[in-house]
Amino acid sequence: MTSEIRTSYSFIGQSHNKQLTEATTMEVLLNELDHHLHNPITRSISNNPLIFIIVLLLSHSTLTTSFPTPSPIPILPLPSSQQLSWQLSEMALFLHFGTNTFTDSEWGTGHADPSVFNPTGLNATQWVAVAKENGFSRVILTAKHHDGFCLWPSDYTDYSVKSSPWRGGKGDVVGELAKAAQEAEIQLGLYLSPWDRHEPTYGKTLEYNEYYMAQMTELLTRYGNVKEVWLDGAKGEGEKDMEYFFENWFSLIHQLQPSSVIFSDAGPDVRWSGDEEGFSGTTCWSLFNRSNAAIGGTDTKYSQGGDPLGHDWVPPECDVSIRPGWFWHESELPKSATNLLELYYNSVGRNCLLLLNVPPNSSGLISEQDIKVLQEFSNLRASIFSQNLAKSAIVTASTTRGGSGSNNTQFNSNSILEEGIFTYWAPKKNQTHWIIYLDFQESVSFNVIQIQEPIQMGQRIVKFHVDVVNEDGEWQEVLTGSTVGYRRILRFPNVKTQRLRLVIDKSRAEPLVAYFGVYVDTVSILGNIKSNTTSNSSSVINFNGSQILHQIVNNRTRVSSI
């Protein structure tokens, strides 16, 4: 009887191709057939094949249409479109340039004669080309620094390029940079210092705020799209008391440049990372409470780490200079490429944007010394991150949202091998066991991993760790980490294994992983990790802000996080 029913069932299933795909129909219905034939209630009607088939077809009427599983609910707070664009740019060049460049000073007094400003070889196209060729997606110019000298011909002061001999008093540094950036498709940002040591109205609250907003309006209405406006709370001791109307400024900026983000100690869109060394906290949330911060008075630790309970999305930006000073000085030399790589790991690799200051010299060009270092820095990044070993691995997961059906491939584990954050792996709902497995199918060596979250869905991961299979065939912990965010890059002593797993230990909601990379760094690891090679001894190494226990046991290296 069973054989007869299967034959009839197969025939009827084939006649319903317009409603169900044949493969899905036959697999589902035949599985159900086996279930019903072993069910005492339905076994009694199985002697009549036609009735039995009709009953089963009616019970599967809901299978006529199959829809994909929708995305999980995003978890608040979320980044705006402007903040997403900013985060995706990853690195920006800061261009400190002005009268200080010609007076060998950092904080100008506001009394330097405009005639000192004469960069006869100025070429903004070169600045932009250096940025683009080395992976920097935006440039930010000090349109006015603390000395009050303006790099554009402002209508509200004579202390500007129009009073200098450069271009016969007809020049406009901001205008030339804006044009070059637009042509090269590089984003433009501008810094307008609130502190002004030249302007007579500084110290008169109403008058100076009117002056400042008038200059801001000039910058944001003359030069096309401005993607970032940079402010700070810098002011020397003993200077005049001055109340800045920050909220008025912010509203004006957003009104005139809706696609722009505003940087300051406390946001509103992007926050300072807490120092000028180019490092962020090893735990780094984009979540933040603006009510807990004030421009010029925010707690450094709070700025570095963010707030897992924060109600605002205010990601951090790490600013640092390639040279000891912010302005160009002939006596100073740039950092090495390996120094810049370290900065990259500890800024971009910790959910931040790296804002690297590369100041033009007195000729108006970026110095060849700096260009050489930037090129070496680019080559180092390419040597490490151009080959993701994970792409050759078989990837599986402990659970997948929507199951493994053909209509739910958008959440499967292979999504983590696709560049970008707009595809991702997602687990089933109401799970607490979140693991992604990589089988390389042969032993591979590596010492760097990279993880990205789809931050458009909110920042979720609180804690994770990575295990590898050791020589004894057992899982062994290599490292632990806390937050991920847009991008987390972690280094550790070299390991060799065929299998790896990413274990997410804690998350604010179902964890989502957009990208996972496995790499080899032969530069910074060899230069920074030193281990005790004495048998049965151990040494604690602080790396990436995480503690890694490096033990030598019977000539085999075992690495675990403590």
UniProtKB/TrEMBL annotation:
Record's subcellular location: Secreted, Extracellular space, Apoplast
Family that this chain belongs to: Belongs to the glycosyl hydrolase 29 family.
Residue stretches spanning the membrane: none
Domain Glycoside hydrolase family 29 N-terminal residues, every copy: 115-378
Name by which UniProt lists this protein: alpha-L-fucosidase
Keyword entries, A-Z: Apoplast, Glycoprotein, Glycosidase, Hydrolase, Secreted, Signal
Pfam families, sorted: Alpha_L_fucos, F5_F8_type_C_2
A GO MF term: alpha-L-fucosidase activity
GO cellular component: apoplast; lysosome
Biological processes annotated in GO: fucose metabolic process; glycoside catabolic process
Stored InterPro entries: Galactose-bd-like_sf, GH, Glyco_hydro_29, Glyco_hydro_29_N
Entry EC number(s): 3.2.1.51
SMART domains: Alpha_L_fucos
Broad EC category: hydrolase
UniProt key word Disulfide bond: no
